[in-house]
Amino acid sequence: MIQVKIAKELLFIGFLVFMTVFSSCRESPRRVSGTSHIRLTDTKLIDYNRGIVKSEEQEIENFLNRYRWDMKKSTTGLRYLIYQMGNGIQAKEGMLVRFQYSVKLLNGKLAYSSDSLGPKSFILGHGGVETGLEEGMLLLRQGDRAKFIIPSYLAFGLLGDQQKIPPGATLVYDVDILDLETIK
How many of the other CB atoms lie within 10 Å of CB of 27? Predict the structure, then answer.
């Protein structure tokens, strides 16, 4: 997970460096088509992104206050609440995790559920799922039941999943760890 996080951070930094070099080759900031009165600069993009994150953070806080959930917050922004403790083994990178789940949007709309799709499984630390889901699973033990609130930047980001998760959506996961298996 740390390697995935570092790789993503390096990719993001590389993108910023590329954009800085690319945009610095011009004498003036690039104009966006159809919005000739707006100049697109690195500072404005960063400020705009910070505003989006701040707005999403406020939506999450409002959601938590409305439902009175007392969740912990990780350094990445993942919120989690283990509401039923299991007595099985602790999740670790390299393990196959199998779990039941529901994924809702902050407005309560159900996006996906193991009730209709069956349990989900993946190998921890190998990606292929939302970054926030993987981070949350590593906090759990077999038999735990937990809720995660995953900000869009730890989920499907600005694009959504092109199906039931809209662009920029915060996800509310409810998970039940059925099995953890060491893969050899």
Answer: 5
